[in-house]
Amino acid sequence: MSNTITTIKGTGIICKGNVKGNFEQVPMELFDYIQLGLINHTDLIVYTKLLQLYNADYGYAFPTIPQLMYYTRIKSKATIHHSLNTLEEVGLIQKSKKTGEIIFMLSSPH
């Protein structure tokens, strides 16, 4: 038997300490939600985008469904609505209609 060594060349990007910009910190508790099966990876993507769009001056995020589809690269309105409903059911967001638009108030993971 021969000893074969496989070498994989990395990109040099390790996402810890040397990445500047184009990333978002999320609460670690979100991974508990995934492990418990309360949300899935698509829900996490939608939540993360809402977190990025959160406006502290107003206290909420207010993207449209088409904007969420564009930002997340999710092609289905039904998938976006399903994720938003799931996030609301588990208490991570609150949906509210004001002046004909839907706003999303983010809640901290418990």
Notes on the structure:
By secondary structure, the protein is of the alpha+beta class. The chain has a single domain, classed as Arc Repressor Mutant, subunit A, CATH 1.10.10. It is 37% helix and 11% strand. The chain has four helices and two strands. A two-stranded antiparallel ribbon has the order 1-2. Helix 2 crosses helix 4 (77-89). The termini are far apart. The relative contact order is 0.16.
Question: Keywords for this structure?
Answer:
110 residues, 4 helices, 2 strands, elongated
Topology readout:
Elements: H1 29-35, H2 41-53, H3 65-72, H4 77-89, E1 93-98, E2 101-106
Précis, in short:
This protein has a single domain (29-106), classed as Arc Repressor Mutant, subunit A (Orthogonal Bundle).
User: Structural class of the helix and strand makeup?
Assistant: alpha+beta
Tell me the count of domains: 1
**What is the fourth-level CATH superfamily?**
Winged helix-like DNA-binding domain superfamily/Winged helix DNA-binding domain
Main sheet record: 2 strands, antiparallel
Distance between the termini: 53 Å
Under CATH, the topology can be stated as Arc Repressor Mutant, subunit A
CATH class identity:
Mainly Alpha
> Compute the gyration radius: what is it?
18 Å
Q: State the strand order across the main sheet.
A: 1-2
- Share of residues in strands: 5-15%
Poorly predicted segments: none
Could you tell me the mean pLDDT?
A: 83
The CATH architecture would be Orthogonal Bundle
